[in-house]
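Let us work through a complete example step by step.
Step 1: write down the sequence.
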Amino acid sequence: MTYKDIINRIRTVVDAHLQLQDFGYGQLSDLKTQFQLSPQDQGVDYPYLFLLPQAHSRQGPVMNYSFNMIVMDMARGEEGDVYDNYITIQSQCQEYIDDVIANLYYYYKDQPDIELTGITYTPFKEKYQDELAGMTATITIQVPTPLNDCITPIVQPVLMVEATNVVKYQIDPEGPNKNFIWSNDLYDPELMWNSQRYESLIPGSYKFVIAQQIKLLQPGAGQVIPTEPVLRQEIDNVNVQFLAPTVSSGWPTQFESTTKLYQWRAEFEVDIPISAATTIWEWISLFDNAADESGLEMQYFGNIKIYRLDQ
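Step 2: predict the structure and record it as tokens.
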């Protein structure tokens, strides 16, 4: 039974009650009055039951839904003691609350289970647009709602590759050694990882997560620091794209010193079209940058993880 089912069941009980004339749900600002502010608004018919949700809680496999059940009626201009008039209305409203609780508790044999202990009743007399009196009850409805991860509509990522580097590598964006390298395979059951490249034969969605410390080498005259690495994607040996990170942090924006450590973290999310036969990804530090770039040094124990997202 869902939260919406609880609300609808209470509404059904109110609709079937011979004295209760109207039902409402929401915050106190949603309370209707007999004479609404505009002609198109529908006024309320009294007696009126209004359900005000409170904080809910979970205790293991049981959800506890808590409400203030407010039942109100208009103060009537009866002869006699005016206080007796309000008290009469409050007493009647308590009876209406008890009617609803009893119907929920005894008539429905499945759920919900009204927690009959700890219910409090508070009489009130208020003046909104209408002058009202009534009773407020705090109730808790317990519904067995065990957590079940088997039906959770969440696709868990599947680790395909994990690799680190156990030596330092110098990267030269202007030379042949422009690729980032993670040569120590920690996990590669499909044998598709080759230190700087990953090949996939399965179309779908993939995510690459990189955590790597680097140091910048001293720039020479006229050189700029290296640009953030991109992912070279090649589909079926023809379609080549260079993809920037989806999320990244820590890449240096200026040279400070050759001893400064930068913690670069980046994520790439890519899709292989279903028509693709093979896809190869490769990490490089530069792609056709016209500026002359200085080098950098990959530090020990950087890490790359590759996930399949749609299995």
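Step 3: interpret the result. Helices lie at 3-16, 82-107.
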